[in-house]
UniProtKB/TrEMBL annotation:
Gene3D superfamilies: Aldolase class I, Photosystem II 12 kDa extrinsic protein. InterPro entries: Aldolase_TIM, DNA_rSAM_put, Endo/Exo/Phosphatase_dom_1, rSAM, rSAM_sf, RuvA_2-like. The keyword Iron-sulfur applies. One of its GO terms (molecular function) is iron-sulfur cluster binding. It comes from the Bacteria. This is DNA modification/repair radical SAM protein. SUPFAM superfamilies: Radical SAM enzymes (SSF102114), RuvA domain 2-like (SSF47781). Keywords: Iron, Iron-sulfur, Metal-binding, S-adenosyl-L-methionine. The keyword S-adenosyl-L-methionine applies.
Amino acid sequence: MEQTLLDKLEILADSAKYDVSCASSGVNRSNTGALGNATACGICHTWSADGRCVSLLKVLHTNACVYDCAYCVNRITNDVPRASFTSEEVAELTMEFYRRNYIEGLFLSSAVEKNPHYTMEKICRTLFLLRRQYGFAGYIHAKLIPGADPALIRQAGELADRVSVNIELPTVSSLRSLAPQKNPKLLVAPMVQIRNSISGYLEDQRHFRSAPSFAPSGQSTQMIIGATPDTDYQIINTTENLYQKYRLKRVYYSAYVPVNHDARLPALNLSPPMKREHRLYQADWLLRFYRFEAKELLDETHPFFDLEFDPKINWAFHHMDQFPMEINRVDYEELLRIPGIGPTSAQRIVRQRALASISYDTLRKMGVVLKRAKYFITCGGKFYGDIHFHEDNIKDKLRCMENPKPYTQLSLFEGGIGR
Ligand code: SF4
C-alpha cells in the first residue's frame, strides 16, 4: 500500500528523535473534540543566536539507510518501517506547518540513501525550494552528509542558517568499531570547509555590506555518550579540539539509548547515562564561557567527572590552596573559578570594585548568588560561610544542595490540614 504523507511524517519524525541537536517535544495525546492538538509530528525547539526559543519541524529526509552503524535504529540490518520524502514534500510540509503557525523553522537531517552525494543533493534541493521558490526566510538547520561533493556542502551553507555534521563517537577507534563505513577523515572534511567558508564570507561582509551570509548560526555536532568505553577525559578533549580547530558553535552530547542487540554495545536493559551527559554539558559550558581548559578538569588518573559535584565545584576541591579568594583582590579569570560566580557576576564585581571596595552586603545587593560562593570567598578578609573553612565541611554543605531530597507529594491528612 502506498504511504501517505502523514505515514511518512510519522515514521520520519520518529526516526529523527535520536538527534539531540534540538530537543523534541511532541507527544501523543488524543484529541476528543477538544481544542488543541499535541500529535507527535516532530515539533521541537531550539534557541536562535539572539536567544529566542523557536519551534522547528524536525524530520529526516529518509530513514532508508545503506549504512550499518551498530547503535542506530535506522541501520540497514534493522527491520523497521522505512520512508523517504521527496524534496517537494518536505518543502510543502514545512510551508504548510509554517502557515498554520505550528513552526518557525526546519531541522532537516537524513540517513544515507543510496550514497552521500545523492542524499545531500536531495537536502540541497529541499533548501533551494524553500528559500528560492517559496521565499521561506525562517530558521533552517540542515545536516551535512560526509562524503558528499564539496559544491553541495557549500550550497547547503549558503541556504541554511546552521549546518552540522555528526561526529557520532568521541574517538576514531570507537567510530571504526561501531560505524566502520564512516571514514573519520570524511567526517571532518565538511567541518573544515564550513569553517573556511564562514571566515571567507565574513571577510566579504566586512568589505561589502550586501555580501551574502553563509551559515550565519555557525556549525554544530553531536556525539553519543556511553555506547563505547571512551572516558569523559577523552570526550572533553575531543570537544575542546572541535571548538578550537573547527570553531563549532555547539557540541551536543547524546546519552546512549540502547535500541539494538549487538555484542559491541552495552546491554539493552541499561538506562541512558543521563547524569554523565549532564556533567559533560556543565564541563562544556566551562570550556566555552569560563576559560577552562580540558586538561584542568580531568586527566588520565581522574578520567571521569564526579557524579556528586559539578565539574567547577570539583575543580575547586582539587585546588583548595587557592581558596578562599578575596573578592576585592582576585582578577576576572580567578573570579570565574569561584563556584557560584558566573561571567555576569564577575563582570559586575570588577566594575563595582573600580568604584569602591566590595562588602558581603554589596555582593548581595548586586545580585550575586552567594549560596555556593560564600564557602569559597572572603570580603575584606572575612569569611562568611556558616562553617569553619575546611574541604570536608564545605562538601557536607554542598552535598545537600547538589543532591536535594526528591520531591514528594504533600498529603492533606498526614500532618497536613487540621493537625
Ligand atoms: S549513517 Fe546515520 S542513519 Fe545511517 S545507520 Fe549510520 S547513524 Fe544511522
